[in-house]
Amino acid sequence: MILLMSQKQMSNIHQKTVRGFGDEWSRFDQTELPAQEAHELFGKYFKLFPWEKLSANAIGFDMGCGSGRWAKIVADKVHELYCIDASPLALEVARKNLQEKTNCKFIHADFDNIPLADNSMEFGYSLGVLHHIPDTQSGLKNCIKKLKTQAPFLLYIYYAFDNRPAWFRGVWKISDYLRRFVSRTPLFVRYILSQIIALAIYFPLARIAKIMELLGFNVKNFPLAAYKDYSFYSMRTDALDRFGTQLEKRFTAKQIQEMMKQAGLENITFSDSMPYWCAVGYKKD
Asked: I want to staple 123 with a disulfide (CB 3.0 to 4.6 A). Which of 60, 164, 203, 224 is the partner?
C-alpha cells in the first residue's frame, strides 16, 4: 500500500530533480545488481549504523528510499520500515522490489511533510538525498523530529572533496560543468549521454585503477578508483545519478557536523572510508 501526499503540499523539493530520479530508478531498478556487490555496498554505507542498539520491535524510516535497495536489506533486520520518497515512480519501483517484505510501508512525501508522528521512530536514515533538496538543513531537522530520544540517524551527503588534494577538486569542477549541461537535456538524451560517460570514462578509469592497485600503487586519489571493484551496472547507474541530476550540493565534514548538531543530534561519528561523507548521530534528550 502506498500512502499519498498531495503534490501541492510538497515544498522542499526540486521538481526536475525528482523527475530525474523517477526516470533513473525506472531504468535502473537494481534487479541486475549482483547480490554480493549489493551487500558490499550496504556494508560501506551502513558501516557506522548501531544495529546492536535497536530493539527487537524497532520501527524506523528510509527517507528518500529510491529503488528500495537499502530497504531490501534493512527490512530483514527490523520490525517495521517506512519507505518514503518524493517521486511516485521511484516509490513504485521500491514497492515492486520489496513486495516480499511485508514489514515495509510506502509513503509518497517530501522532507517538509513526513507523515509520521514526532518522537515516534526508533531509527532513521537518508542516504544520498539531502544534497539534492533546496534546504538541506531544514530537511535534516524534519527527519530528526520524527525520532525518539537517543534514536540513531544515519546520513550520506556528498562531500566537498575536503579530504582530497587541490588537483582532485579541479578535476571535479571540470566534470561539474559537464553535469550542468547533461542534466538539463531531455530525460532520454541525458540517459544516453550518461551511458556514454559510463563506457568512455567510468569503466576505463576504474579498471586502470584496479590494475595499478594490483601493481602495488596507492590509488586513493586516482579518479573513479572507488569503482575499481564494482560492476559496469553500478557505473552505469551512478553515471546517470551523477550527471543526470540538476540540483547537487556538496558539504565539508565540518559543515555536515554543524548541520547535524543544529538538527538536534549528538555523539556524531563520521566514517573514515568511502563513501564520503557517511555519518551517524543520536537525537538529543
From this structure: 60
